[in-house]
Amino acid sequence: MVNAAFSWGICRGCTLLCGVGGKPVFSESSRTEAAREMRKSIRHSFMRQMRGRPFRNTRLEQEFGAAYHLSGVRTGYVFSLMAALSFVVFSCVEYFAFKRPMTDTVQVVRAALILLFFAIGWHAKVHTEKYEKNFHIVAPALMVVYVSGILFFEYRTQLYGHPEFFYLSVNSTCILLTIACYYFMRLPISIAILLSLLLAALTIGTVYVSGVFNATVVGRMLTYISVSNAVGFWIRRMFDMRERRIFLQTKRLKNVAALKQRLIEAETAANRTKTTFMAMLSHEIRTPMHTVTRLMSVMQKDFEGQLSEKRLKTFQQVEQACDQLLATLDDLLHYAMLGGTSRDDGDSEFKLDVLLVECAQIVDHSRQEKGLKLAIDVEQIAGKIFAGQPHKLKRVILNLLVNAIKFTDHGEIRLAVASHELAPKRYQVTISVTDTGIGIPAAELKNIFQPFYQVDSSYSRRFGGSGLGLSICQELMRSIGGAIAVKSEPVTGSAFEVTFPLTER
Q: Which of 40, 140, 490, 499 lies 20 to 30 angstroms, CA to CA, from 229?
């Protein structure tokens, strides 16, 4: 990348030397200015490569820098604790293996550094924000103190002999800490370069003042230290690009998660608003519609025997229209509640046979008007008390019975219940509503539980309804752990079955 930077700068300078737009520039002042521009381009390109490739978005670069520094602070206090631990190990080894007393100068200085690094590591872990502000000062200072301590200990102990171990120790320490200051300490590249040069100077200075100085060995050390600087710089560049990619990926994931959360909150708020609106709308419309229905009934009674058949039929049509509008409002309100936060009253005790009989009684007037027969079979669960949610079951059964009566012109409707014991006091109950009505084409059976779906547009004009009834039934059955299914043939009729679990009390 540095070679590319030099190449770019040279090409830029050559372009200026040769001219602009293919026209050569021969004046001396122009050539001097072009040479100056080439040097400037090379210098800027080199510094840009040294700094890495920052994000074009300033805010994004600042966020990455903050996260990068915070990671450096964490690495810093881990480094402090590890430095203190390493000094503890060295002190114990020299005390037990080499019989160096704890009152020795090296042991005393090492003990002081142990306390210092432990205190700094603990304090940085507790007060991270303070070290994050002054990280560029604290981290290099810690590194210099640590390497100075290591070099001091090595300088004092090398007098006991074995110069090869002295060279190996100080050289390996310098190499490892050089790589650490380039990457692990998360320092800016300029500070990392200056710190690595300072470490190299301290190392060479310690060797120079020692009693085992050798120019050949020092030359090899300089070679190794130079290579470690190049490797450290390469690692820094490679991991810098990698961490920027990871930062972007993490940022995207966080943004997606935050967006999902906002969508969920917005959807919840919208559903809540929808439910509230539908409840208010239903209340505001239902009240005058009930008044109109009652007035129509009163007027029919007041004018009983005085109205012609045509007028009486008109009164009945108005009353039926009001009833249909109220039923549609109920469907819309209930569907809105299911789409939002559906109310769950918990389980309560009830008799299923009584509930089914009540449903039959509610629709009995409509059944008699069409001259249909209604057969009820509740023998299997007669007298049994169950625990469940009867208001939801009643809503489903009423909806199925109303549909059966609506789409049946002659014949009968059958309401039957069957139960299967899964465990003691635990039953799988199946309620079926069968009619001899117009039936449903096989191709439409998979769609009839969709909201606002009508098998045929003419059905809405002929039979009325909003197309929400079966969708509501399906949602209600799912809410109590049940299911709804249908079998139907055109002209022959339809059979709806709801299956759900119940517990006997």
A: 40
Integer-rounded Cα Rg, in Å, for the chain is 44
Q: How far is CA 26 from CA 10, 13, 20, 210, 215, in A?
A: 19, 15, 12, 60, 52
Amino acid in the structure at residue 318: V
Q: Which residue has tokens 């909150």? A: 265
pLDDT of residue 28: 61
Cβ–Cβ under 8 Å, residues 200 and 174: yes
Q: Which residues lie below 8 Å from residue 315, measured CB to CB, with a gap of 6+?
A: 296, 299, 300, 307
The two structure tokens encoding residue 360: 């039959």
pLDDT digits (tens, 9 = 90+) for 103-125: 888 889 989 999 998 898 888 88
Distance CA 417, CA 496 (A): 12
Residues 6+ apart with CB under 8 A from 384: 351, 352, 353, 504
Q: Strand 385-388 to strand 426-435: parallel, antiparallel, or no bridges (unpaired)?
A: unpaired
Asked if 143 contacts 202 with a C-beta cutoff of 8 angstroms, the reply is no
* Identity at 160, one-letter amino acid code: Y
Q: Which residue has the tokens 């109950």?
A: 429
* Amino acid present at 271: N
> Nearest-5° angle of CA 360, CA 366, CA 371?
100
Q: How many CB atoms lie within 10 A of CB 393?
A: 25
Q: H helices within 180-214, ranges in order?
A: 189-209
Measured between alpha carbons, how far is 11 from 20 in angstroms, rounded to an integer?
13
Write out pLDDT tens, residues 391-449. 888 888 988 998 898 888 889 999 999 998 888 888 999 999 999 988 888 878 888 88
Contacts of 166 (CB under 8 A, 6+ apart): 154, 157, 158, 210, 212
Residue 266 buriedness (CB in 10 A; 0-12 / 13-18 / 19+): exposed
Other CB atoms within 10 A of residue 282 CB: 19
Residue in 171, 156, 175, 184 with CA at minimum distance from that of residue 80:
184
* DSSP secondary structure letters along 414-458: EEEEEEEEEETTEEEEEEEEEE-SS---GGGTTTTTSTT--S-HH
Nearest Cα to Cα of residue 336 among 249, 394, 275 = 275
Residue with tokens 């509930």: 355
Please give the helix or strand (H or E) that residue 341 lies within, else none: none
pLDDT tens digits, 294-316 = 777 777 777 777 777 777 777 77
Cβ neighbour number for residue 61 with a 10 Å cutoff: 13
CB 120 within 8 A of CB 142: yes
Report the C-alpha gap between 236 and 58 in whole angstroms.
21
Closest of 408, 389, 400, 413 to residue 463, by C-alpha: 408
